[in-house]
Amino acid sequence: MLSFLPSPILVIINSILIAINVIVIATPMMLLGIIKFLLPFHFVTVMIEKCNYHLYKTWVFVNRCIIRLTNNINWHITGDAIPNTKKSCIVISNHISWLDILFIGCVYKGNIPTTKFFMKHSLIYIPFAGLACYALGMPFLRRFPKEKLLKNPKLRNKDIQTTKAACKRLIDFPTTLINFVEGSRFTAEKAKVARSPYKYLLPPKVASLGVALSEIGDQVEYIFNNTFYYPDNPKKAFVDMMKGKVKNVYVNVEILEKTDAIKGNYLEDKQFKHDFTMYMRDLWEKKDQVLEKMHQDYETNYKNK
Questions:
Q1: How far apart are CA 8 and CA 62, in angstroms?
Q2: Which residue from 19, 54, 226, 231 lies 20 to 30 Å from 99 (Cα-Cα)?
Q3: What does the pLDDT read at residue 136?
């Protein structure tokens, strides 16, 4: 454990180790992506997907080691036990920080297939990491302003088509699709602008998840509902991790039942679309209550100690 070192030194250590990990893993992924583009044959794609699976698991493992090396974290993990599966899964989660992506790897510890995220299209331009995500087949979603959508309504279907393509890959090659349902990282300012009815969450944006469940809900083995809370690091959790200052991490994992509430045609069945939206709002209300309990536990047992 190096968390006793001064923050500037830990920032340097983390920056070097994380950069090396990204470059070492992302470079072969990008090369494999080029090969897949030039040789679009099924057996080539299968072989490359298997290579990417092991590269990604290595990246997750090394990240866990780096975080353990530079941060002395007290993990508070509650909820359902995480099963070990090689079949496709879906994970939905609240979104606090970029750190969520690294911590999902820490929580699930390789027990689920390679994770893929619905990502903002602008992230594709991040050196190495963006191109590696593209090579992995991450679904990149574009967020168009309302003014642009009004001028060109066809743009509304862009994300839907991207979601459908991602779902097809999910079945062809076992993967875990991660959906940060809020669509953006939570801040009190964003919640106020969005007129969020929740204390700790932004309103859920359910379209991408609704389409994904309509396409492959019956074919994935597990649907996980993930809730994060970083009580010591409410604003800049990723930066604090780089400084070695993440102390407590609360995580609740719930395995959702495949009830009729998540089975249906989101795009064509208006009643199902309405029912699914209500289901997600109710789920988000319960998630808000879970976060309230996490806040209370931290206030009682850890704050100022």
A1: 22
A2: 54
A3: 66
d(CA 203, CA 113): 28
Within its chain, how far is the Cα of 160 from the centroid? 18
Residues in the chain: 305
Please report, for residues 176, 198, 265, 271, the alpha-carbon distance to residue 268 in angstroms, rounded to integers and kept in the order given: 26, 29, 6, 9
Cα 231–chain centre separation = 19
Spatial distance between the Cα atoms of 164 and 18, rounded to a whole number of angstroms? 32
Mean pLDDT by 10-residue block, N- to C-terminus, for the chain (305 residues)? Answer: 90 95 86 82 83 85 94 95 91 94 89 78 65 67 61 64 69 83 91 95 91 85 96 92 95 93 89 94 97 95 75
Is the pTM above the cut of 0.90?
no
The two beta strands, 222-229 and 115-117, are: unpaired
Task: Report the run of H or E that residue 225 belongs to, with start and end.
Answer: strand 222-229
Q: Which two structure tokens, joined as six digits, stand for 216?
A: 């492959």
Report the C-alpha gap between 222 and 170 in whole angstroms: 13
Q: How far apart are the first and last CA of the chain?
A: 21
Sign, Cα dihedral of 258, 262, 267, 272: positive
| DSSP per-residue letters across 117-167 | E-EEGGGGGSTTHHHHHHHHTPPEE----HHHHHH-GGGHHHHHHHHHHHH
- Partners of 117 in the β-ladder: 178
What crossing angle do the helices spanning 42-70 and 129-136 adopt, rounded to 10°? 140
C-alpha atoms less than 13 angstroms from C-alpha of 211 in its C-beta half-sphere: 19
Please name the amino acid found at residue 191. A
The tokens for 19 are 């950069």
Name the 3-class secondary structure at 194: coil
- Contact indicator for 143, 287 with CB cutoff of 8 Å: no
At position 263, the amino acid (one-letter code) is K
Give percent helix, percent strand, percent coil of the chain, each to the nearest 5.
55, 15, 30
